[in-house]
Design a protein that fits this description.
Blueprint lengths: L10 E5 L2 H4 L26 E2 L18 H15 L3 E5 L2 H4 L10 H16 L3 E7 L5 H7 L6 H16 L6 E5 L8 H9 L8 E2 L9 H25 L4 E7 L2 E4 L4 H24 L6 H7 L5 H10 L1 H6 L4 E5 L3 E4 L7 E2 L6 E2 L15 H15 L3 E5 L17 H19 L4 E7 L19 E3 L11 E3 L1 H11 L7
Parallel strand pairs: 1-3, 1-14, 3-4, 4-5, 5-7, 7-9, 8-10, 9-13, 13-14
Antiparallel strand pairs: 2-6, 11-12, 15-16
Helix pairs in contact: 2-4, 6-8, 7-8, 13-14
Bound molecules: 6-O-phosphono-beta-D-galactopyranose (BGP).
Length: about 500
């Protein structure tokens, strides 16, 4: 039994993203989205992109993914059986506006999400909708180039307006952009976050890409800040019950040693990776250190950035978020000297940490870092927090009885939930926890199915084989008990 008390109405649940689980990539009038041209990879082979369009010889994991598009009733009922209070999913812009700038929306797309939200409600589940989770209509990328083009702002806000109007009363929790700070991360940020594409087919989307342009990225990110602020204001005007959050890829960074230079570096990394975006979205203004520590260092035109910040100052202030949400998978260390121990991770690396272990995919596992991060962020912003991603990607294998006994996943989650309890005890206002990949889905970084996160197993492999049937893992019943006891019984 846990010693910690979770607040009444705590939003326990799970999280997903459309391009990683929905499938139906061209169903019922949907247009292509940038992830629909990103191929599968592995931990050692980067995902490649074919920006010109779908190539018949390539395998794109988003096309079918786990086919939630045709299984949503069964899947949401399973979440209901676990007692989910909240289910995080994302909408695809190109399902509703196939080209991003169409005059009329696609009714089938609108109906699909309505059916999904209604099914959630039937199961007593509050939907938490990420409006953009690593996706952007491909046609819009071809036409406008991505988020660095300011024309995209109003097109996206129009999409938001449709969502807030259509789903008024069905959805009240929204996140504007998933891991908005991933835009700081070179090629990955360009493609996944900003819809900015390389010129050539078969370009790399991750490591080793040489087509990145920081000026475009930072202006693109600024345009997203403006769009997000406009959306927050609009959401409140359309329905005062709406609560809109930012979503940051949480990156807890410790100094590798107590050497003052390491401490300073860790502070700067924390700022860059977390607070650059957090400050704009929660406080409504760029932090003072942005000019020297970020723009100047990255070779961005400082005068231009200052001009944009001044021009949009009022919009940013008027659209600050209601809560701060984040993903948390790992911590890292910052070192001014090469330790020879780089740590792995999704979008952030860092120097290694000899005190913590790593997952099968090399991601450091640090539950105590979650408490530390929660307390740092809450101290800084004093707005409610929500953990909207946390979980263990593992290679699940069947036991002798043919079932999946994922005790390692249960241990991972228990350890993180205990640390959440400690932060709550220390006074942090934590709204909820949605475990990432509550049903197995495609990995964002590697495009694999083999890297599984779910309470629910989906029969599909890296090459697209499998009959897609769903199966409960041991963690399914464990989580049901956690939710039923509001975090008291952690098994
Ligand atoms: C986050 C993304 C998710 C998700 C998760 C796990 O960065 O928001 O989309 O995929 O990481 O990462 P991966 O799928 O690479 O294991």
């Amino acid at each position: 039994m846990s010693d910690y008390k979770f607040p009444e109405g705590f939003l326990w649940g799970g999280a997903t993203a459309a391009n990683q689980f929905e499938g139906g990539y061209d169903a019922d009038g949907k247009g292509l989205s940038v992830p629909d041209v990103i191929m599968g990879g592995t931990v050692d082979t980067p995902r490649l992109i074919t920006p010109a369009g779908v190539r018949p010889e390539a395998y794109y994991p988003s096309h079918e993914a786990i086919d939630f598009y045709h299984h949503y009733e069964e899947d949401i009922d399973l979440f209901g059986e676990m007692g989910f209070k909240c289910f995080r999913l994302s909408t695809q812009w190109s399902r509703i506006f196939p080209n991003g700038d169409d005059e009329k929306p696609c009714q089938a797309g609108i109906d699909f999400y309505r059916n999904v939200f209604e099914r959630c409600k039937k199961n007593g589940i509050e939907p938490l909708v990420t409006i953009s989770h690593y996706e952007f209509p491909l046609a819009l990328s071809h036409k406008y180039g991505g988020w660095d083009n300011p024309k995209v702002i109003d097109l996206w806000v129009r999409f938001c307006e449709l969502l807030f109007t259509e789903y008024k009363g069905l959805v009240k929790y929204w996140l504007t952009f998933n891991e908005i700070n991933c835009a700081m991360m070179g090629a990955f940020g360009n493609v996944m976050g900003l819809g900015i594409l390389p010129a050539d087919d078969w370009a790399m989307t991750f490591t080793g890409a040489d087509w990145d342009d920081p000026q475009r990225r930072f202006e693109g990110l600024h345009n997203q800040f403006v769009a997000s602020a406009k959306a927050v204001k609009l959401a409140h005007e359309i329905d005062s019950a709406n609560k809109v959050g930012c979503m940051i890829a949480g990156n807890a960074t410790y100094p590798r040693t107590c050497k003052p230079a390491d401490v300073q570096l860790a502070t700067e990394v924390m700022r860059e990776n977390n607070f650059y975006c957090g400050d704009v979205q929660v406080r409504g203004a760029y932090p003072v250190w942005a000019e020297h520590q970020i723009w100047e260092r990255d070779g961005v035109d400082v005068a231009r950035m200052k001009e944009l910040a001044a021009r949009d100052a009022e919009v940013l202030k008027a659209g600050t978020v209601d809560f701060y949400s984040f993903s948390y998978y790992m911590s890292a260390t910052a070192a001014t000297e090469d330790t020879g121990e780089a740590s792995g991770g999704n979008i952030f690396g860092g120097a290694g940490n000899p005190y913590i272990k790593a997952s099968d995919w090399g991601w450091p596992i640090d539950p105590a870092g979650l408490r530390w991060y929660l307390e740092e962020v809450y101290d800084r912003y004093q707005v409610p927090l929500m953990i909207v991603e946390n979980g263990l990607g593992a290679n699940d294998e069947r036991g002798e009885d043919g079932k999946i006994h994922d005790s390692y996943r249960i241990d991972y989650m228990r350890d993180h939930i205990v640390e959440m309890g400690k932060a709550i005890q220390d006074g942090v206002d934590l709204m909820g926890y949605t475990m990432w990949g509550c049903i197995d889905l495609v990995s964002a970084s590697t495009g694999e199915m083999k890297k599984r996160y779910g309470f629910i197993y989906v029969d599909k492999d890296n090459n697209g084989n499998g009959d897609l049937h769903r199966e409960k893992k041991d963690s399914f019943d464990w989580y049901r008990q956690v939710i039923a006891t509001n975090g008291k019984d952690l098994g």
